[in-house]
Amino acid sequence: MALQPFYAATVLRLSLGVMYLAHGLLKLLVFTPAGTAGFFGSIGLPDFLGPVTMAVEIAAGLALILGIYSRWVALALIPVLAGSIFLVHGSSGWLFSSEGGGWEYPLFLIAASVAQFFLGDGAYALVKNKEGSGQLQPAS
């Protein structure tokens, strides 16, 4: 039973990683970098932030899946999600199924990212945070 939170952190890390990777790849392969840049420009942001956001999501997703500084990667993604609420989804209402996508899903991902920050890397991480940083450790 002592390992359950440790492995729960791993499941959360992998789930967040897959989600961010898929979201970044959607921008790359479906919307294309040019289309993503155009969308960012259409909402009043500099065009270059579209491909930058796409690259951040792909890199962060891979880092989470591999377990590379997971706690800090999860924390660093929160401004991206907050931006998606305030600049894109916030005016569409609560439900993500609303036209334009509501803000419930990005807000949930913020909560999950905060939980990942507090839980730490979990099992099977390539680069773990330093011991004693409040991260869960398996019982001996």
Outline:
This protein has 140 residues and is mostly helical. The protein has four helices and no strands.
Biggest β-sheet: count, sense, barrel?
none
Task: Compute the number of helices.
Answer: 4
**Class computed from helices, strands and strand pairing:** mainly alpha
Estimate the strand proportion.
Answer: under 5%
Oligomer: single chain
Question: Which H/E pattern describes the elements?
Answer: HHHH
Helix content estimate: 55-70%
Identify the overall geometry: globular
Beta strand count: 0
The residue-averaged pLDDT reads 88
Our measurement of the CA-to-CA distance between the termini, rounded to an integer number of angstroms, reads 12 Å
Task: Explain this structure.
The protein has four helices and no strands. The chain is mainly α and 140 residues long. The longest helix has 39 residues, at 4-42. The two termini are 12 Å apart. The model has no long low-confidence stretch (mean pLDDT 88).
